[in-house]
Amino acid sequence: MRKSVPLLGAFLLAGAAAALEIAESAASRRKGPADANLIDDLVAANRILSDQGVVDGFGHVSVRHETDPMRFLLARSMAPGLVTADDILEFDLDGNALESRGRALYVERFIHSEIYKVYPDVRAVVHSHSPSIIPFGITNVPLRPIYHMSSFLGAGVPIFEIREAGGPATDMLIRNPGLGAAVARKLGKSAVMLMRGHGNVVVGQSIQQVVFRAIYTEINAKLQAEALRLGQGEVAFLNAEEAANATATNNAVLSRAWELWKQRTLRPRAEHSSVP
Amino acid sequence: MRKSVPLLGAFLLAGAAAALEIAESAASRRKGPADANLIDDLVAANRILSDQGVVDGFGHVSVRHETDPMRFLLARSMAPGLVTADDILEFDLDGNALESRGRALYVERFIHSEIYKVYPDVRAVVHSHSPSIIPFGITNVPLRPIYHMSSFLGAGVPIFEIREAGGPATDMLIRNPGLGAAVARKLGKSAVMLMRGHGNVVVGQSIQQVVFRAIYTEINAKLQAEALRLGQGEVAFLNAEEAANATATNNAVLSRAWELWKQRTLRPRAEHSSVP
Amino acid sequence: MRKSVPLLGAFLLAGAAAALEIAESAASRRKGPADANLIDDLVAANRILSDQGVVDGFGHVSVRHETDPMRFLLARSMAPGLVTADDILEFDLDGNALESRGRALYVERFIHSEIYKVYPDVRAVVHSHSPSIIPFGITNVPLRPIYHMSSFLGAGVPIFEIREAGGPATDMLIRNPGLGAAVARKLGKSAVMLMRGHGNVVVGQSIQQVVFRAIYTEINAKLQAEALRLGQGEVAFLNAEEAANATATNNAVLSRAWELWKQRTLRPRAEHSSVP
Amino acid sequence: MRKSVPLLGAFLLAGAAAALEIAESAASRRKGPADANLIDDLVAANRILSDQGVVDGFGHVSVRHETDPMRFLLARSMAPGLVTADDILEFDLDGNALESRGRALYVERFIHSEIYKVYPDVRAVVHSHSPSIIPFGITNVPLRPIYHMSSFLGAGVPIFEIREAGGPATDMLIRNPGLGAAVARKLGKSAVMLMRGHGNVVVGQSIQQVVFRAIYTEINAKLQAEALRLGQGEVAFLNAEEAANATATNNAVLSRAWELWKQRTLRPRAEHSSVP
After folding, report:
1. Do the Cβ atoms of B150 and B222 come closer than 8 Å?
2. HSE, side-chain direction, 13 A CA sphere, residue B4
3. Euclidean distance between CA atoms A94 and B166, whole angstroms
4. Is B185's pLDDT higher than 60?
5. Is residue C7 pLDDT above 90, yes or no?
6. Distance from CA of A22 to the nearest CA of B (A)
7. A74, B96, B184, D156: which could form a disulfide with B114 (CB 3.0–4.6 Å)?
8. Would the CB atoms of B138 and A253 count as touching at under 8 Å?
9. Which of A58, A170, A275 sits opposite D257 (nearest CB)?
10. Is residue A171 less than 8 Å (CB to CB) from chain D?
11. Buried b vs exposed e over C228-239: b needs ≥16 C-beta within 10 Å?
């Protein structure tokens, strides 16, 4: 997906260089508030992820500002299923709210800011406690693509162990830029990263793509666990070329699912259980 | 189910002959647009399959034209749960839209066209990523009928491996007539065929029957996996005669379930999660 | 539960005697149509079992006539979730509709008639394809009470194998009085009986009780399967006294659940998936 | 969580002392009926636990009176999902209703009264048959925190075996103060206790906290069982410090989930299945 990801060894240096590039190229483009359509899509993304069971009272989704790559949009600290346009705030790449209007902020906004800082091609980020992926984050069983819909998992799914960067006694949260930077490093060129005892991070090149990926990551996890039991460990996964080709194909039809999910958020709705 | 299915060895020749027969018998019957009731049923089928979790943003259902067997009806490229009568297009048996009105077409319409071409008795086709069947398509565990509702599985459930016809680097999709023909060949006389790393194909002699089969295939897969674990592999399946007899019985009461599912699509509805 | 159940050996004779007793005691009580409240409760039972996922398009629930024990009430052949008071018909204990008004009848009404014929204390019967019990009917794992809510399973859960009474080539249905009688014999004094490759039968002394039992049978099956996996076969079940005592206690609070379930059937509702 | 919990050995004595302290400190604060906001929160808690699948027709939630610690509030005997403010009654710490107005009372109110009597810091109690925890109560597999949301499980989850205090032939219910006292003793300093063949007890320092804990206990149980299968018994749990730190963090954001759950109870709603 992302072409210019540095090797892990040279990561910090290259990351800094990438950030520099963004800063330079963005200087001339920075022009005022985010587009209303982008905000509407971000609100829809919050509602969709809640409707589809990827987030419950917790979790968040952000998008990079469409003309200023040094800013991103994220809701104030609240349940995604209740977010409206008025709840969307702007942040810089250090995770500072540009104008918080006294609103509480997500403690873990540094997941977003540090990923945007390092990966210029990432334009949207989801952090969730998506239920079916939790078991994969606390076992040694790799999450892999079982069908074409989740082919983006073919780029690999690393697991972030907070004890490596934060020691053995954290509260599990990515509550400062340093932990955010460790998250960004571990993510590498993958679309999805699991966080041990916590949840996952999903990145994409648009809101529609990151929502699609977050939902099909959840589905893949549920069905892969089932397949491993059914096949007693013997499961045929997509190979690397199938995964890459299917991802290119899916990217062209993201709107088909997006339109359905968006329509569903507008209808009278059922109670949504947090219980998976 | 289908009486005159050729042996696999003589398949291509017999298939061509069957297609010829259709062409001849149909010449005098071809008379204009599809019946409004048939279109209404196809719209209902789209909605029902979405409501029941067989399809999500993806998947499709078609029906053969009721007076012209050389044509079939299928929605334009969109989520089944949003399909209306205006979205239904007509196709010929090469997968060409007769009048596309500029609409985008499903890339995989050749699943439908090639099956209709070869099997005169097939009058409706569903292609889905029905979640519970995915694990059966990627393991070596055969899908078999665990109870009378899914007795149509007694005809066998082959697995389509796209690498055989398409090589090791496809995008998994049935995106041309050649792959569609390979799908049709592998289907044989079965009602259901799995596609490795992709989904399934279900065929029937009416819209009501194919919807019934698609739904109970999903249920059978879910419960069979559960039974295999519970019984540690020891499970009593329907025998061949029980399966054949139950299928004949079920065919007489398809409308009982259809009426329920159809009523449900008309009521105020809950958010439908794509997550199984 | 039922006090005067004959030993299996003397079953047919005792059953006939019991039926005779009913006939005698009932002669003076037989007085016209069923009470409107009883019909309302039977309609509610149909809706509740559909809402709670015990029945889908198929399955049925009946109640013995409140003043004439030689009659019972059952809907015409249709999906339980759509039943209204006008769909309720009366049947005699041979499964004949007293006044069918041209309506189609459930093929399997003999499950009900033969049970009512043999067991005077049974006043309500459910037949369903309750999803989670299907695996127990096709494996050798006994369904047993894992908690107090399903304590009525403590009386034992026999499995009906239709091949014993119907041979190896049935369509799995209880389509005549002879098969119905075999079902009634196998049921014995249990509250629940599984039918291999088909579903279950649940009996009770009232509509409220049989609905309670049908729902908690489904829940027990789901959670027992889970417990057996979690405990690798080592599970603590209720002992016989706990089961008997808890059943007596539950019988006194059936209305607490009934009122909730009934209220739910009256609210605007979500689409109900048949897929478990 | 609770700072001043006595060692198990000195438990009864210390418990009595604690109760005495409450009586003294409360004497001056006792002032009439409970606050309307507290009652509203308790009604919301009933609805939320029903919406989220923690309780069905059975189970209950209580809160200690905000100015008189010798009293607590609990609904009359009814399904939690139907509770309104008018159904809330006041009880003393022996489980007597102060003014029952002829209403039926929960048989198991002694779970609440005896816990409030012994643990001054407990301000809210849930008793439920939360489905996913049932298997953990009947096997020897400890329930442990798999992620930060359920970190409160880090204090340990004892299992209450009613046969120890009630003998081998109870009806499983906590139907008198003696059994309630045994429940309270076994709970110790934990936030959650399982009851073999029955359900669980969850305690907290506020309604919001106890609802949060009851819901995430259910989720943890479901996902832990899944993780144990996936990892074939090898699962990384939160360590003691992570659990304690995450609990402190979560306590500060309880309202984020509460607001979502509360909003959901006010919307037009879907049928809620009791079947998990």
Report:
1. no
2. 11
3. 48
4. yes
5. no
6. 33
7. B184
8. no
9. A58
10. yes
11. bbbbeeebbbbe
- Rounded to a whole number of angstroms, the CA Rg of chain B reads 18
pLDDT at residue C6 above 90?
no
* Stretch 23-52 of chain B: residues touching chain C, C-beta under 8 Å: 51-52
Interacting residues of A29 by C-beta distance below 8 A, sequence separation 6+: A67, A68, A69
Which residue in chain B is spatially nearest to C140 when comparing CA positions? Answer: B231
Q: What is the mean pLDDT of residues C241-260?
A: 97
Instruction: Return the structure tokens found at A23.
Output: 């800063």
Q: What angle do CA D93, D99, D104 make, to 5 degrees?
A: 90
What confidence tier does B16 reach under pLDDT thresholds 50, 70, 90?
A: very low
| D78/C146 CB distance under 8 A | no
- Window from A165-179, C19-33, C44-58 with minimum mean pLDDT: C19-33
Please answer whether residues B106 and B60 qualify as being in contact, where contact means their C-beta atoms are separated by less than 8 angstroms: yes
Q: pTM value?
A: 0.90
How far is residue D128 CA from its own chain's centroid?
8
Question: Please, which residues bridge with residue A62 across strands?
Answer: A125
CA proximity to B155, closest of B82, B66, B247? B247
Token pair 């309506």: residue: C103
Characterize the bridge pairing of strands B71-75 and B88-92: antiparallel
Q: What mean pLDDT is predicted for residues B234-250?
A: 98
Q: How would you label D242-271 residue by residue, b for 16+ Cβ within 10 Å and e otherwise?
A: bbbbbbebbbebbbbbbbbbbebbeeebbb
Beta strands B199-204 and C88-92 are unpaired
3-state class of C166 per DSSP?
helix
Active site residue A90: no
Rounded mean pLDDT, D167-196? 98
- C30 token code pair: 């037989």
Residue of D nearest to C270 (CA): D270
Residue in B219, B245, B270 nearest the CB of C131:
B219
| Pair B275, C197: CB distance under 8 Å | no
> β-strand C192-195 against C159-160: which pairing, if any?
parallel
Q: Tell me the CA distances in angstroms from C135 to B150, D6, D229, one per residue in order.
A: 14, 48, 19
Is residue B212 within 8 A of residue B126, CB to CB? The reply is: no
Q: Is B73 exposed, middle or buried (0-12, 13-18, 19+ CB in 10 A)?
A: buried
Chain-chain contact of C56 with B257 (C-beta, under 8 angstroms): yes
**Contact of C48 with C42, CB cutoff 8 Å:** no
Nearest CA distance, D120 vs chain C (angstrom)? 31
Structure ipTM: 0.89
Question: Which residues, given as ranges, of chain A have pLDDT below 50?
Answer: 1-29, 268-272
| Cα–Cα distance, D270 to D215 (Å, whole number) | 19
Residue pLDDT, tens place only, B138-182: 998 999 999 999 999 999 999 999 999 999 999 999 999 999 999
Coil, helix or strand at residue C194? strand
Segment D128-144, tens digit of pLDDT: 999 999 999 999 899 99
- Here the tokens at position B180 are 């569609």
Angle of helix A207-230 versus helix A36-51 axis, rounded to 10: 20
B56 part of contact set with chain C, CB < 8 Å? no
From the candidates B21, B108, B164, B218, give the one annotated as an active-site residue: B108
Reduced to 3 states, what is the DSSP secondary structure of residue D142? Answer: coil
Cβ–Cβ < 8 Å for A2, A189: yes
What is the edge-to-edge ordering of all strands in the sheet holding B199-204?
B88-92, B71-75, B60-64, B124-128, B199-204, B192-195, B159-160
Among chain C residues, the shortest Cα distance to D51 is held by: C264
Judge contact between C132 and C222, C-beta under 8 A. Answer: yes
pLDDT at C160 over 80: yes
